[in-house]
Queue: 4 jobs
Job 1
Amino acid sequence: MPGRRRKVDSPHLEAAATLARNVRIVRGERGWSQQKLAERAGVAYGTVRAIETRAVIDPGVFTVQAIAQVLDVTIADLLRRHVTTEPSPGHSAAPR
């Protein structure tokens, strides 16, 4: 599985928790399952599940970019404490 496995003492735990929560929120607002998100982003279902459950705390940047792109948000949006699902500048509001 890509990314670094979860470690209790990792400095990335807080960011991983924020990413997990925000991917879950935005995916849910789109009405997508983890499987549908994975298919649209071109990543494995297990990768989406691992990100959302924080089983992987340091996913690859290209994986996160692919997920952000199909969710129509930026990587920065996914790492914010309080996610907004309004389209980011440069992103369309059209569903994919």
Job 2
Amino acid sequence: MGKFQRNYIPPINDDDREYVLENFDRTLKEGWIQVYNQPIIRAANGKVSDEEALARWCDPIIGVMEAEWLAIKGTEM
């Protein structure tokens, strides 16, 4: 594998959706949401031109969820 290997994170299913809604307050309290900075690299010269912040829900039961959980919680507010 190359140095830019990325682990597969499956999409959120209906069971996970319920879990997100039921445990959102807990994840904030227990610090399960992690922020990662990712560089944006220009294809033309290979140099870093910017960066973006990525939020991940790192749950001890169902594992890592990409930011799809933000849309789930947003629809419930």
Job 3
Amino acid sequence: MMETITTKPVQTSSHTTPMDVFIDIVRILLDNALTWQVEGINEKENSLLIQVSYQPQLTRHRKALENMKSILADYGYYVKGSPNDDAEQNS
């Protein structure tokens, strides 16, 4: 039996996505049937601004967004380092 699509409240959020993790993010979006589009391209930072539409009442969508945000946060931490790194270097 196929799931029926009913009109449910949809929210959108935008995420700056470095090209280094773009495929990982798109895989999450596609695997979870999330609607998304590229809002902008930042060539200097080698990143895209992606707008994601999701239904907050669906656990699957919430978990997909959490997973996406986690990857983006981990990548930011990896690239920029810990906030404590600067303090340690300056002391």
Job 4
Amino acid sequence: MIKLDEQTDINTLPDDMRQHLFSMDSKGMKWLIFSFVFIVMNVAGGLLLVADPFMNSYIVIAAPVMIIINVWALLLMVRNPQKTQLEVVLFTAFLFASYAFGLLLISHKFAYFVAGVEGISFFVGVLILYLGTIVYFIRYYHKTLSTLEGEVEAKEPEKWMWKIFTAGPAIGLFIYHGFLKGAFAELILVVLVVLFGVLSIYLSIKMFYKHAFMKLNLPLVVFVQSSKESIIEFEDEDEYEYEDEDEDEY
């Protein structure tokens, strides 16, 4: 990744690079943590893990990850959100990574114990898809955040992801005829779980790179609704330029 000059005007940066210099809205952080952890992960994800057929091994594997994320989320909920804006970006990256891990477990459970998949071909295929997605987006964001010469010559992740989702039915039919004996409805559920896992990988890598790029170029980061105390915490030696401009006006 590129380290920018502290005098750089962020408005002149490529769009993909500039958006990585904005922190998350401090007012929406607690709502994001509550909804994505305590509702999506704990309720929705927990129900899928314990759904029939109940398999104790999946709970044992998923529990440590869920406990760590929940404890971290509770700590962020009780702290001043204006002092944790950078940490929340890192937390979000780990949160989506835990989503991908959990959805991998859920897809394995539903494929083999509900949809009737036989053999290891399906699971190996999902792992290859996951690894391919990781490599693709690591390369994409490494290129995106390493050059100032406009956007990199690569397909936009958002468009790429939508193509994957629209290809879901075709992928499902292929898996159905190739691996399954069971019902088609269960197969569609498995395919959707896998695709949401791919989406979670994309979001996780995006947030990991956002956090790393923000730390590397901290003087240029725009902290949303930052208080004076949080500014001092993030940058001890120098003040932001906009503070100097305000003093000049007076």
